[in-house]
Structures are given as structure tokens and as C-alpha cells.
Amino acid sequence: MHASGFPTLGYVQRLYDFLRRHPTWVDTFWAVALLGVSGLSVVNLDGVQGHHGTIPLGMAVSVVLCVVVALRRRLPEPMLLVALATGLVQVVLDVETTVADFAMLVITYTVAAVGARWASRLALAASLCAAAVAQIRWPDQHSSFAGQIAIAVFQTVPFALAWVLGDSMRTRRAYFAQLEERAARLEKEREAQAKVAVAAERARIARELHDVVAHNVSVMVVQADGAAYVMDAAPDQAKKALETISSTGRQALAEMRRLLGVLRTGEHQETGEYVPQPDVEQIDDLVEKCRSSGLPVDFKVEGTPRPLPSGVELTAYRIVQEALTNTRKHGGPNAGASVRLVYFDDGLGLLVEDDGKGAPHELYEEGGADGQGHGLIGMRERVGMVGGTLDAGPRPGGGFRISALLPLKPAH
């Protein structure tokens, strides 16, 4: 039984959708029905004493008013004017009201709901006057003056209600349109924010990858060159250099897996080694690795070490890592470096200096662009994200200096 009912529901739904797409057809159906009822009322009225010969004019008025009903949603303002003109014709030619005058209520509601503002105000004014005009033109002979006033007031109420309902519908539609516009605007803003977040995340990963790859690959290159140089004369040193290359490569792969894992949201990785983000405590290991690769580094910590925000710790580590990498790349074969970490009450200070030949001019004058467009640009972006300051440039006595101050409170 239920299965046989489903096709019927489908037909009803399709019919409903069709009628919603063709509202004029619906209005035309009701206009035809109104014309039939109005025609009967005109014929019956013609048989009443004093109304003989009114059928032609009555039918003409009924046809016009039914056309108003049929076209009310397609042409609301013109149909209002046609209805008002028809009402004036009725008053002038003494064509008494019939069932077709129900079209006045319909067009009043329509223009109040979807018509122009001037049409809505005109419909309201005409509605408030229509009943009084009709009562004056065709008074009830069996009612007193007070009774006629009461009848006029009573007949005005439906017109006023029609206008109020239409205006309420207009307000409701405007409210929903505003909500839809706001939802669409919020959706666009969310999409824009998502794009900005994606771009920021890509930039962050690019900085991380640059720091990891640039530092570790430079260590591996130095060690490989050294191993090739002492391969025959000192095989033990060559073996040690190869072991350093191997461990450095593994560490680089582990950090790269951690970074690339950020891009695999929602996936459970059963294999692969993930390491925590570097912090200030690992700067000592970083310095030792640089020393083992042949770069003399003097490392000192001043103040009382204490836990720092993770963003500050990662930024400090990456600044030192990038600075030492630049020393190795641009300082020359006999360059040495020094690293100072200073714990203040409200921040962390970093000072990295080297006594090499210095970095290329564009490295610091044009925002810190190295061969791949990162370098000091990444440093400045990192420091800016935690609300700190960075100063980079050549030392007066030769070499290069990078100093940074990282506040312990995030920037607002």
C-alpha cells in the first residue's frame, strides 16, 4: 500500500513545482473561477428591481477585474491602476459592486507585497477610501446614517488587512534576502580567510623546509668535501665525516617528515619518524654539530634559563640555525662565529656574529634574499610573528652580525 502511494506523492510534488514556476497560470485559474461566480451575480442582480440592463456593463467590469487578478504578479503596478480606473468607471456609470470587486483586495495585497513603494501607498489610500465611496454611491436604504458609517468601517477592515498582510510579506522577504546576502558574504569571508590561512601555512612550511634543508645540506657538503680530501691520508677522519653525513641526513629526513606530516591532515601514519619542534635547549646540539663540521662556534647563555613559549623557542632556534648556515656559506674557509642567548625578564635576546668576509650586499639591503628567495626574509617573518625585532648587517670590523629580541608575550 505504501509503495503504491509513492508515485501519487511524486505526481503531487511535480504539480506543485510546476505551479510554483508558473504563478500566472494559477492566477488565471482563479480569475476564471471568479469570472464565473461574478457572471452569475451580475445576472441575478439584473433581475432585481432598479438594476435592469446592467448585464453588459457588469460583465465588462467583471472581465477587466478578472484580468487584474490573472496578471497581478506579472504586472502589479499597471494592474493596480487598471483596478482603480475600473472602480471609478463603476462609480460614474452606476455599476454596482459585484463579486468581481474582490479583485480590489487581491491587487491591494499584491502591490503591498511585491509592488513599488508608490504603488503600495496608493493602494493603501484607495483601500481606506473605497468602502466609504461605495457606501455613499450605493447607500443602504434600510440603514440609518450611523448604520451606514458602521457598514463603511466594517467594509474597510478587509482592505486594511490585505494591505497589512502584503506589507508584512514584503518585510519578511526583505529580511530573508538580507540573511541570504549576509550568509553569502560570510561564506566569501570564510573562503578568503581560509585562503590566507593556507598561504600563511605554506609560507611557514617553506621557511621550515628552507631552514632544515639549507642547514643540514650545508653541513653534509662540508663533511663530504672534508672526507674526499682526507680519504687516503686519514681514513678514520673520512669515516667519521661520513658518519656525520649519515646522521645529519637522517635528522633532516626526520624533520622533513614532521613538516610534511602537517599537509596530511586526517591521515594516520603507521610509519615514519616524527620529532618535536626544535627549542632553545637544542641550540647546544646545533652548535656542536657546526663545530664538528669545522666551523668554530663560541656559545654562551646569560641570565636564568626558563621555559619559553613554543613559538619563541622555535624562532630562536631557527634564527641561530640560519645565521650559522649563512656563516658557513658566505663567511669563507677561516670564519668563526659566536652565539649569545640572553634571558631578560620580558624577553629573549639573540646575538650571532662571525668574523668572516661577510654576506653579499643584497642579503641584508634588499630584505634578506638569498639564492632561493628566503634567508633573512624568513628570519624577519618569524620574528614578526612573535612580535620581536631583528637587526642584520655587516660588522664594522668585518664579518656579519644578527641580533634579535623576542618578547615573551605574543604581539596583539
Structure report:
By secondary structure, the protein is an alpha+beta fold. Among the domains are: about 1-140, no CATH class; about 295-410, Histidine kinase-like ATPase, C-terminal domain (Heat Shock Protein 90, 2-Layer Sandwich), CATH 3.30.565. Helices cover about 65% and strands about 10% of the residues. Strands 1-2-3-5-4 form a five-stranded mixed β-sheet, covered by helices on one side. Strand 2 (about 335-345) and strand 3 form a beta hairpin. Helix 6 (about 115-135) packs antiparallel against helix 7. The radius of gyration is 44 Å and the shape is rod-shaped.
Shape: rod-shaped
**Residue windows where pLDDT falls under 50 for at least 5 positions:** 265-274, 365-373
Task: Order the strands across the largest sheet as they lie in space.
Answer: 1-2-3-5-4
Radius of gyration of CA atoms, rounded to a whole number: 44 Å
Number of strands: 5
What's the helix-strand series? HHHHHHHHHEHEEHHEE
Largest pleated sheet: 5 strands, mixed
- Beta-strand proportion: 5-15%
Per DSSP, the total helix count is 12
Q: What is the arithmetic mean of pLDDT? A: 78
Taking the alpha carbons of the first and last residues, their distance comes to 67 Å
Estimated helix fraction: 55-70%
Provide the structure class: alpha+beta
